[in-house]
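> example.struct
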């Protein structure tokens, strides 16, 4: 048997993870026909079919499933060997792959990704950052991500967590066109007569509560409304369109408030939502690009205080 190239193995793992030749090709930075030919050549070398393909789906065969289980530890070993060399460099190099849960990415982006990512890349020119957005909390290990990011610190076992941002203040907001048709709420209880846009978590399917705090008082309001969404950007757009009242993290609405597209109320009542946390496997050797990123974030947070 001719020697199997590492390119073929990494292409195989990418297709197995994404269950899609197109998505795997995009991740690898190659054309889909090239990805297809790479897998076909690997199957010819091995003498077995690794994937069952239809026009709508891609699934591992029994041989493919067994092959994946065998080569993943080998590829991890290669990664560890590279990291061992990387640790001897003055500046780390490599790709840092981050999986952001969608809500976390939307809040993080509203705060401004560039003020963090741009100076990080400038300080570490040998590191390439790849950020993938997931609709729900994905498996960062099977996805071969170095770390994930989500709102809140509820993380699976065997994960190390690190706070990226402070908690966020929540604001009740609505478009001026909506407020022209409805009375301005003066207490959280007044929201019972308003059309409130509710948010359903894409992770567990639960409706997010509207919790308001003022000093030692807390009001948990069971709001009602004609629209329920599971995406914060859709909620924000619906609020600015005048559909109803939204309850959103301050970073996402700050610019809209400043430019008059939204107005806020109940300012003396405010809830909070946990900040964005980074998490990564505890048992694995931490890649140097991730170590550098964590140290960089820590330094930025210290400087901001």
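> example.seq
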């Amino acid at each position: 048997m001719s020697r199997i190239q590492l390119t073929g193995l990494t292409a195989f793992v990418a297709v197995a993870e994404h269950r899609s030749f197109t998505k795997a090709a995009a991740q690898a930075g190659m054309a889909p026909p090239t990805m297809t030919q790479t897998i076909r050549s690997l199957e010819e070398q091995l003498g077995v079919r690794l994937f069952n393909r239809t026009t709508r789906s891609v699934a591992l065969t029994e041989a493919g499933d067994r092959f994946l289980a065998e080569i993943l530890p080998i590829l991890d070993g290669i990664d560890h060997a590279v990291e061992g060399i990387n640790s001897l460099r003055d500046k780390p190099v490599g790709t840092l792959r981050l999986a952001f849960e969608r809500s976390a990415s939307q809040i993080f982006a509203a705060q401004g990704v560039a003020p963090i990512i741009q100076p990080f890349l400038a300080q570490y020119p040998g590191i390439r950052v790849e950020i993938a957005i997931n609709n729900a909390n994905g498996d960062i290990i099977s996805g071969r991500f170095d770390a994930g990011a989500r709102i809140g610190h509820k993380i699976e076992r065997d994960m190390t967590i690190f706070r990226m941002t402070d908690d966020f203040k929540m604001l009740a907001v609505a478009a001026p066109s909506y407020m022209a048709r409805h009375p301005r709420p003066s207490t959280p209880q007044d929201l019972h007569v308003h059309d409130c846009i509710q948010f359903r978590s894409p992770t567990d399917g639960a409706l997010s509560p509207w919790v308001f705090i003022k000093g030692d008082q807390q009001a948990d309001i069971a709001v009602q409304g004609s629209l329920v969404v599971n995406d914060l950007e859709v909620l924000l757009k619906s609020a600015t369109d005048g559909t109803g009242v939204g309850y959103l993290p301050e970073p996402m609405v700050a610019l809209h408030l400043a430019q008059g597209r939204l107005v806020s109320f109940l300012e003396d009542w405010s809830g909070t939502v946990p900040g964005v946390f980074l998490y990564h496997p505890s048992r694995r050797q931490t890649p140097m690009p991730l170590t550098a990123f964590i140290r960089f974030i820590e330094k930025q947070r210290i400087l901001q205080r």
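> remarks
The chain has a mean pLDDT of 85.
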